[in-house]
Amino acid sequence: GDQLLIIEYDGELHTGKIHKNDISKKWISNTQRCDKIKDKFIKDHPEDYIALYRITHEQPIIKTLEKILNKYFDY
Fold first, then answer.
1. Rounded distance, CA 14 to CA 69, Å?
2. For residue 16, which of 34, 30, 4, 1 has the smallest C-alpha distance?
3. pLDDT tens digits, 21-46
């Protein structure tokens, strides 16, 4: 069957690097916990998923997407 490629966009609040005083450590910790769950799920289901990529707000979106798509597809 077809495998899925997942691309997740992580905005400024995701890492807690911005507005640190406004974001609770519990929220940041929970976000990181959820990311680990997603990573493990993808790793445990290689027949269904090619990969999971996270693009952050600090990366050039278009260039990063093109690089990822070129790696797996004739893009």
1. 23
2. 30
3. 667 778 778 888 999 999 999 999 99
Is the model more confident about 63 or about 29? 63
- What DSSP string describes 6-71? EEEEE-HHHHS-SSGGGS-HHHHHHHHHHHHHHHHHHHH-TTTEEEEEEEETTS-HHHHHHHHHHH
3-state secondary structure of 74: coil
pTM comes to 0.70
pLDDT band at residue 18 using 50, 70 and 90 as cut-offs: low
The answer to whether 52 touches 39, Cβ cutoff 8 Å, is yes
